[in-house]
Amino acid sequence: MDAVRILTANLCSGQADPVALVDLIEHLKVDVICVQELSPRLARALSQVLPKGQLGTNRYSRELGIASRYEAEVKQFPLPRRAGWVARLSPAHWPQLRTPIEIVNVHIMAPHKLPYARSLAMRRGQLSGLLNVLAQEPGIPRAILGDFNAAPLWPLYRRLASRFTDAAVAVARGHGKPRPTWPHLPALGLKGLIRIDHCFLSHLSALHVQVVPIPGSDHLGLCADVVQAYKPRKTFE
After folding, report:
1. What DSSP string describes the chain?
2. Each residue of 50-95: pLDDT tens digit?
3. What is the pTM of this model?
C-alpha cells in the first residue's frame, strides 16, 4: 500500500525561501505539508504546488495551515493562544487509504517566553486541549505533527510519547538515533542540536522519516511516510 508523505515545517516567521520550499516539496513529492509561522507570501507559493487544504495567514507571519495534493476537509480547533489545525483525508480522494485518516498540525508555545510561569501554564493548556480533541475519536488513524517546542526529555514530549508513537524513534530503532530539528543555522555551524519538531502516530505506521533543510528557516523540516499497514524500513539518510 502506498504511503502518504507528510512534511512539517516551521517557516521562521515567514522568512523561509518560497522558491526553495516549493522546490523541496516537488523534489520530495510531498502529499501534505503542515506549516507553522506562515506568511502570506509563503502561503501563495505553497498554494501553487499543493492547491488543496487550507492555509491561514495574518500580517504577523505566525499562522498555521495544512496544504495538500488532493482534497482534504480542513478545520481549526481551539487551543490557548493559537488554534490547532486538522485535515481529514478520505479514500474518495486519496487512493492510498482504506479508511479516513486525520493530519493534525500544532505549534506549542515555547517555554522561554516571559513571564515563564505564564508560558508554562499556556503550554500545559495547549497540551490538555490537544489531548482532549484527540480523545474525542480515539479510534481514528492520526498523524500529529508540528513544532512542539519540546525535546524528548521534557514532560510535554513524554506525555505525548506515552500515548502515541514517535515516528522518528520507531523508524530509527535499530538504525541509530533520530536526527535533531533545531536550531538550523548553517552560517554558525549549527545543523540541529535537539528534536523539537515531531510526528506522533495513532493507528498508523511510519515507513520512512527524513530531516530536511528549509532554506531561510531556523528549523529543519521533518518528513514522514505514513501508512495504515505496518511494513518497517530503514530511516532516510
Report:
1. -PPEEEEEEE-TTTTS-HHHHHHHHHHHT-SEEEEEEE-HHHHHHHHHHS-EEEE---TTS-EEEEEESS--EEEEE--SSS-EEEEEE-TTT-TT-SS-EEEEEEEPPPTTSSSHHHHHHHHHHHHHHHHHHHHTSTTS-EEEEEE----TTSHHHHHHHTTSEEHHHHHHTTT--PPP-EEEEGGGTEEEEE--EEEEEES-EEEEEEEEE-TT-SSEEEEEEEESS----PPP-
2. 999 999 977 667 899 999 999 999 999 999 999 999 999 999 999 9
3. 0.94
Q: Where are the domains of the chain?
A: 4-227
Strand order from edge to edge, sheet including 4-10: 52-55, 63-68, 32-38, 4-10, 220-227, 205-213
C-alpha cell of residue 18: 518560497
CATH no. of 4-227: 3.60.10.10
pLDDT, one tens digit per residue, over 93-138 is 999 999 999 999 999 999 988 888 889 999 999 999 999 999 999 9
Q: What are phi and psi of 205, to 5 degrees?
A: -125, 155
